Amino acid sequence: MLALSLSSLGVAIAAFYLSSKIEDDVFKAAMAFTAVGFLLLNLIIAPWLLKIVGIVILFVFSSLNRWSVKNFRL
Length: 74
Description:
Layout: H1 2-21, H2 25-45, H3 48-71
Helix pairs in contact: 1-2
């Protein structure tokens, strides 16, 4: 189950990366929907520890991003 979870997480990360680098709007939307789908699949099949770590990482990055935008805006 862990291997399947990590592989779906890898596909989701790759799809998010491709959606940020692609210029075509249709392909960008398709990659974004693919990434969201695989992230939802990952949340269903992932062990609890991996779910908690993923949520903590999202909160840490969001707090760092908020802090950096607030203090370093030109």
